[in-house]
Amino acid sequence: MTRKKISLNAEDAAKLNRALSANSVELYQLIHDPQPEVLLAILKNRQINDEHLLALLQRRDLPEELLSRIYQRRSESLSHKLLLALVKNPALPGNILRSLLPQLRLFELVYVCFMPGVTPDQRMAAERIILQRLPTTPLGNKITLARRTTANVVAELLKEGNPAVMGACLNSPRLKEAAIFQFLRGPKTSAETISMIARHSRWQQRPNLRLAILKNPHTPDIWFTLWLPKLPPALLKQLLAAPSLKAKQKKMIGNELKCRRV
Question: What is the pTM of this model?
Answer without folding.
Answer: 0.87
